[in-house]
Structure formats: C-alpha cells, structure tokens
Specification:
With 109 residues, the protein is mainly β. It has 1 helix and 11 strands. The protein has one domain: 3-layer Sandwich (Rieske Iron-sulfur Protein). Strand 10 and strand 11 form a beta hairpin. The termini are close together. Bound molecules: FE2/S2 (inorganic) cluster. The site of FE2/S2 (inorganic) cluster has 10 residues, from loops.
C-alpha cells in the first residue's frame, strides 16, 4: 500500500521522520538527497530506531548503539553490549521503497 509521508521540504529540514503506515512503524530518512524507508524497529531488542542519532545515512540506536544504514537496511555496527557477540551480517532491518512525486515523499509498505 502506498502512503504519503510528508513534503520533501519537511524531510530536508528534519532529515528523518517517524511514520505510522497502518500497523507498521517506519523510519523515513534523507540520504544523499533521496528518501529511504526502513522498519522503525531495532533488530537487537526491538526498540524504535527513530529515537536515535542520525547522520550521513546511518541511524544509531539510542539503546545500545547498533547502527543501521537506512539506504540498505544493513547493520553496519553491532550493539555496544560487552557480553553480546553478534556479527552485523547476522542482522538487518526491513527496507521499503520510498520515492518523491510532486514534491512529496511516498513509501510503499
Ligand atoms: S535495542 Fe537497539 S541496540 Fe539494543
């Protein structure tokens, strides 16, 4: 299903927005001038990624520091928990198509 998220200007100003697409929470973020969308759920313990720090296409979970590339949904760095040994390649976040049409950002969920 297609959803209108926000205007492109809003996304440019905020860099990331949290969006509720029916039952799914989605994080929409701007990277390299384009919108990208991933599930707003950390693959470590399920906390929302949208509350984390976002910079240069990578969102950092505020709970334990796992980092996800919003362009691919790939985990680029593991959680910062001493007893936890999980390779980034063992985790990923679902990504969704995102695009701009008539100045608005849409996602397909
Ligand atoms: S819940 Fe996100 S890194 Fe632990």
């Amino acid at each position: 299903m297609r959803y209108l998220v926000c205007s492109m200007i809003t996304l440019t100003e905020r860099q990331k927005v949290k969006f509720q697409a029916g039952p799914r929470s989605v994080l929409v973020a701007l990277a390299e001038g384009k919108p990208f969308a991933i599930a707003d759920k950390c693959p470590h313990m399920g906390f929302p990624l949208s509350g984390g720090k976002y910079e240069s296409g990578v969102i950092r979970c505020k709970e334990h520091g796992l980092e996800v590339d919003v362009r691919t949904g790939s985990v680029v760095d593991s959680p910062k928990v001493a007893f936890l040994k999980i390779a980034p390649s063992d985790m990923s976040v679902r990504s969704y198509p995102a695009f701009v049409e008539n100045g608005n950002v849409y996602i397909e969920v």
